[in-house]
Design a protein that fits this description.
37% strand; 164 residues; Jelly Rolls; disordered N terminus; 14 strands; 2 helices
Length: 164
């Protein structure tokens, strides 16, 4: 099931201004490459951009061949992102748990494993876990002019609790 709603940049979640450098390695551009699982450091979601406990595990960085980064983002029960937008859009694939997403001006939606959330460029939204369950998603986030996210204000408890 696809929802035309939301997304979050994993690599962006770790960077204060949402800037993402493209990895450029001309010597490696034509080679098949395997990155070992867990080879990149896990990051803690900053309280500037998240409420509650959030863990970010980068999977790949954007580069010249694929201008999108990928990361696993795990939200503990009740944790959520701040409102934000993506200049090049984002896709979320829910892997486990129960999550919530909301596009500005629209109702909160519940998401489940296998759901794909599509967030078009420039759409203000937030996402996170349900109040009583954790949630993990794979975030694939496009990069435009070196940026993948613009962080906005925190989601209030009142906005988050609309889903109950």
């Amino acid at each position: 099931m696809q929802h035309s709603l939301i997304g979050i940049g994993l690599a962006a979640a770790a960077l204060p201004a949402g800037d993402v450098a493209l990895n450029r390695s001309p010597d490696d551009s034509s080679r098949h490459h395997v990155s070992a699982a867990g080879s990149q450091a896990t990051l803690v979601g900053s309280s500037d951009y998240f409420t509650g406990s959030v863990r970010i595990e980068p999977v790949w960085s954007a580069d010249e061949q694929l201008t999108a980064s990928g990361a696993w983002v795990s939200f503990e029960a009740g944790a959520r992102s701040a409102w934000h937008t993506h200049p090049a859009g984002q896709r979320l694939v829910v892997m486990s748990g129960i999550g919530l997403v909301q596009e500005w001006g629209k109702p909160v939606r519940e998401i489940h494993p296998g759901d794909v959330v599509i967030c078009p460029p420039g759409i203000k939204h937030w996402h996170g876990a349900a109040a009583t369950a954790a949630m993990t998603h794979l975030a694939v986030t496009g990069v435009l002019d070196g940026k993948n996210v613009e962080w906005l204000e925190q989601v209030s408890d009142e906005q988050y609790n609309e889903a109950r």
